[in-house]
Amino acid sequence: MHVSHPRTVPTRRRSVLLTAAAALAVTGSLLTSPAADAAGPATAEVSPHAAQTIDDIGASGAWWVNDLENFDPRVQARVAESLFSKQGLDLSAYRYNIGGGGTGVTYAPRAPEDFLTSDGGYDWSKDKAGRYFLYAAAKYGVQDLIAFVNSAPAAWKTNGKSCGGHLKAENEQDFAGYIADVTDHFARQGVKFDYISPFNEPTNSFDSCGQEGMLVDPSQRDDIVRALGAEQRARHRRTGIIADESTSTVRFNSEIPQWISQPGTARYVSRLAHHTYDNPSDADRAKVHETSTAAGKKSWSTEICCFGKGGTGWAQEYDPTIDGGLNLSRIIYKDFATAHDSAFQWWVALSEMTGSDPLARNDDGWNDGLIYYDPNYATNGNQTLYFTKRYYALGQYSKFVEPGSVAHNVTGVPDGVEVSAYDRDGTWVVVVNNHNTTDTALNLHFNSGTPARARQAVRTSADENWAKAAGPAVRGGTVSATLAARSITTYVLDQRGHGSSALTGALVGKQSGKCLTADASGAAIGTCTGAAGQSWSYDAKGTLKGSHGYLTAGSSGLTTAAATGDGSQRWLLNSNGQIVSEATGECLDVSGQATADGSRVILYSCNGGANEAWTRQ
Q1: 177 and 233 in one domain?
Q2: 494 and 507: one domain?
Q3: For FRET with 4, which of 52, 502, 506, 556 sits at 20 to 30 Å CA-CA?
């Protein structure tokens, strides 16, 4: 949300500006599958081991609802249908903004009402449009309803505004009571919040006052979490708390340990939340998994927007084309596949920031929304809704990847292709991004839950929106398809049986070209000879079994040992070549980036180095 928008409101003007689409340069997986023969491409592998369970996929209802209050009820109903119905995005999460009153905020749509009255009571008739879309989400059966706060009411802030400043320490309990009163009220209306986020982007003050926000230092975050958690428990509410909605993965990784380790805090935290701004590397995302593992919590990606200019980094641009759709799909893919987040939530579902033309890419608007409306609706009467490719890209996931779906990493995909695979109730859902400018062949082998027939194939491309696509060929445990250029395709496949087969072969360091060996004394690399000691079997439990036993992340380092069944012997084979310990979230790392025979292999924080990338032979 917050890094999700410029610090000042862009000037609204209308002209026409067309720019050409930019192609993305991408590379494929490092953990490769067996080599291709002359007949076709290599076969990518769906891991037999489950990586994480998906909680939800959603978007935020902040800000735009203040404009939509003025729209025709039929348009409001269409927006709700577009977001929440099975014909639309079928979102499984919706973020409702508990406003801070908007005191001092200079841009009216970003000044949401609070429910407090001057005499200390409540006026539940406020925030009319915000409530309308919250009730609509509940009516459509959105699974996770999340209440989030950008700023506490101004009376409890150090600067007396809804932007900038801190929550005063003496008002922390007042704030906790207020949030609990709001959630209690909606519960009485039949709308129960599943989660509460009490502060958002706590390192951004937004003291320019273009929008609501407040600073919450790490030393205060645990105080607020404990106050709210204790208040909820005293009221016998089971609403979970998510925190701390860090602006970036770097902030998340450095600040989460500071506050969640404080006594009595962790028990109140249901999920750890980060935003995905600042174009995080694979190393940054992998560190999210390590941070969350250390805290014993699942991580969520709860906000991203405003990327552009051909990449996924912060940039001013309005891009309704497939380029923007593929960029969004890449972010979802990486957050699920590398950070192993259990939820993905986009920033604002709607926006007015179309810039000079709602139908064409331009440098005046912002890629902050999924659906857009005319910023001048109040004067020209235009209530047209403009749907971007980002809307359809998110739907390639949200319409098919249901809560409770189990993610499996996929390795060995062709260059320019990203593959996500999800298993649920006898069904496989496979989402494939083809960033290449040409059609690309894909062979995908499943090592558990053999795919049977393809029930559905849906594609979004430059000239298609959730269009029916040709189903893949299915033979044995392998699915074969030709991916349209610059497209996102979702395949839904029935499963036959629940058996699994192990992935076997040597694990070769990308940097050294040497094979992983291990025994009870430790792990090392050595010249690949094909000897039995260099062969590993990876199974549905996530274990790596060699000739000397199971690779184990022990207190004294890496060893092999007899089977224990605990996390110290479970590993994730990330699609980017990282081999990650489920016990610590750390990577297999050739110490000192050495390449000589006998060089030690250790556990180390995932940093994206070539000494932490492995291929399978």
Answers
A1: yes
A2: no
A3: 52
Q: Say if residue 58's pLDDT is above 70.
A: yes
The full DSSP string for 451-510 is: EEEEEEEEEEETTEEEEE-PPPEEETTEEEEEEPSSEEEEEEEEEEEEEE--EEE-EEET
Average pLDDT over residues 574-598: 96
Give the chain's count of helices (H) and strands (E): 10, 34
56 DSSP 8-state letter = E
- Closest Cα to residue 49, out of 408, 449, 576? 408
DSSP 157-174: BTTSSSSSSBB-GGGHHH
394 falls within a domain? no
Indicate the pLDDT class of residue 28, thresholds 50, 70 and 90.
Answer: very low
Identify the bridge partners of residue 27 per DSSP, sorted by sequence position: none
Residue 134 and residue 277 share a domain = yes
Residues 365 and 358: their CA atoms lie apart, in Å, by 9
Mean of all residue pLDDT scores within the chain: 92
Average pLDDT estimate for 23-50? 58
- Decide if 244 is inside a domain: yes
Burial 467-484 (b: 16+ CB within 10 A, else e): eebebbebeebbbbbebb
226-231-235-237 Cα dihedral, nearest 10 degrees: -50
* CA nearest neighbour of 164 among 208, 216, 205: 205
CATH code, 249: 3.20.20.80
Whether residue 456 lies inside any domain: the answer is yes
Least confident of 196-210, 390-404, 554-568: 554-568
pLDDT of 435 > 80? The answer is yes
- 578 and 488, same structural domain? no
What CATH number has the domain bearing residue 440?
A: 2.60.40.1180
Of 445, 477, 500, the residue at which a domain comes to its end is: 500
Domain that holds residue 456: 43-50+405-500
- C-alpha 283/C-alpha 497 separation (Å) is 36
Number of domains in the chain: 3
Tell whether 347 is covered by a domain: no
Residues 446 and 568 in one domain: no
Q: Which residues of 514-546 are buried (b: 16+ CB within 10 A; e: fewer)?
A: bbbbbeeebbbbbebeeeebbbbebbbbbbbbb
Alpha carbon distance 434, 424 (integer Å): 24
The residue type of 36 is A
Element housing 417 (H / E):
strand 417-424
Is residue 517 located within the same domain as residue 416?
no
Q: Are 371 and 433 in contact (CB under 8 A)?
A: no
Task: Round to whole Å and give the CA distance between 458 and 86.
Answer: 14
| DSSP assigned state of 602 | E
Considering Cα of 366, then 369, then 373, then 377, what sign does the dihedral take? negative
CATH assignment of the domain containing 532: 2.80.10.50
Of the residues 282, 303, 324, the one at which a domain ends: 303
Identify whether residues 85 and 210 lie together within a single domain.
yes
Residue 406 has pLDDT above 70, yes or no: yes
Give the pLDDT mean for 336-365: 98
Instruction: Provide mean pLDDT across the span 208-218.
Output: 97
Q: Is the dihedral of CA 93, 285, 293, 567 positive or negative?
A: positive
> Does 40 or 497 have the greater pLDDT score?
497
Q: What is the pLDDT of residue 40?
A: 60
The amino acid at 560: T
Q: Are residues 496 and 528 in the same domain?
A: no
Q: Helix 322-337 and helix 389-398: axis angle, to 10°?
A: 30
